[in-house]
Specification:
Layout (H helix, E strand, L loop, with lengths): L1 H6 L3 H14 L4 H13 L3 H14 L4 H13 L3 H14 L4 H13 L3 H14 L4 H13 L3 H14 L4 H13 L3 H14 L4 H13 L3 H14 L4 H14 L2 H14 L4 H13 L3 H14 L6 H10 L1
Helix pairs in contact: 2-3, 3-4, 3-5, 4-5, 5-6, 6-7, 7-8, 7-9, 8-9, 9-10, 10-11, 11-12, 11-13, 12-13, 13-14, 13-15, 14-15, 15-16, 16-17, 17-18, 18-19
Length: 313
């Protein structure tokens, strides 16, 4: 009955039936597994881990139980346990590409970049047309410091799926970091066409256009990024700098203040807000900012300039 309810897309009724099944027979491993799957789909990772753990007690060598329990532990952030369970699953089914990919993911989370590269390569070898597997290989290579190989993997993932924005975002970020702005724009604009309001896409585009001193375009994209994540202090700080670059000091000071509401100890934001207010002739507002900055962070890198402005107020 539980399986029938699942087929009818009635998960509440299915869950009730599976629970009746284990109430009748406590060692019914398959029913425990199905309870765990429903709870995992609902985001109840703790409940899923409990039910799938019970299933594993009765089905210790069941590949699907191991896989689902490992996935639940991944969602819960228990990466070491997830690795252990995925490893057991791989021993049972050594040709499963998804398990190899998932082992790459958990190794990335554990900071084991070389192991992540190895498992990601195995996953890609097993399923070379899978764009997600290729992207994960790129991510592992990038984290291990092999930027050129990462770019090749990201390009491969992008070519496999024209609507997949993640490799395009990472390519844009890598090309931005190396100063190859034309290539960065190619991939970020491709991502923008798919997800025009995506935070990462617009944040990176804002940064590229700022480097090019195309302030109008930079403002457009940083504003979109800020709208996507209104509580992100860094994007408001970058937007403030872009307004300042465009000469719009009023909006710059407003964005600096927004950034500082979310990150009160952003010393550069305090300093630059003080500079902006000084340029606007609002000395009474600038003075306490410089005084507070020097008092709370006497080793600030631009302290000499802050003191020079303060003396002139």
């Amino acid at each position: 009955m539980g399986q029938t309810f699942r087929a009818l897309n009635r998960p509440d009724d299915a869950l009730a039936s599976f629970r009746q099944a284990v109430a009748i027979r406590a060692d019914y491993g398959v029913a425990h597994r199905e309870i765990g799957r429903i709870l995992l789909a609902r985001g109840d990772t703790r409940g899923a881990i409990d039910s799938l753990g019970r299933a594993l007690q009765h089905l210790p060598n069941d590949f699907s139980v191991l896989f689902d329990l490992a996935s639940a532990n991944t969602q819960a952030g228990n990466f070491a346990e997830a690795e252990r369970l995925f490893t057991r699953a791989l021993q049972i089914n050594p040709n499963d590409a998804q398990v190899k990919h998932n082992l790459a993911i958990v190794n990335l989370e554990l900071g084991r970049n070389n192991e992540a590269v190895n498992f990601a390569r195995l996953a890609v070898d097993a399923a070379p047309s899978n764009a997600v597997f290729m992207f994960t290989l790129g991510l592992a290579l990038e984290n291990s410091g092999a930027s050129d190989l990462a770019i090749a993997a990201y390009r491969g993932a992008a070519s496999l799926d024209v609507g997949y924005i993640s490799p395009r975002i990472n390519l844009g970020s890598l090309f931005l970091s190396t100063g190859n702005y034309s290539e960065a724009l190619v991939f970020l604009n491709q991502a923008l066409a798919v997800a025009p309001n995506n935070f990462e896409v617009n944040n990176n585009l804002g940064a590229v256009f700022a480097r090019l001193e195309n302030w109008t375009s930079s403002i457009i994209h940083y504003e979109r990024a800020a709208a996507a994540r209104p509580n992100d202090p860094t994007v408001h700080f970058n937007l403030a700098r872009t307004y300042a670059g465009a000469g719009d000091l009023e909006r710059a000071q407003s964005s600096y203040r927004t950034a500082l509401r979310h990150a009160p100890n952003n010393w550069d934001a305090i300093f630059e807000l003080g500079q902006t207010l000084f340029k606007l002739g609002r000395n009474d507002e600038a003075r306490p900012l410089f005084q507070d900055l020097i008092s709370r962070n006497p080793n600030f890198s631009n302290r000499t300039e802050a003191e020079r402005i303060l003396r002139s107020l």
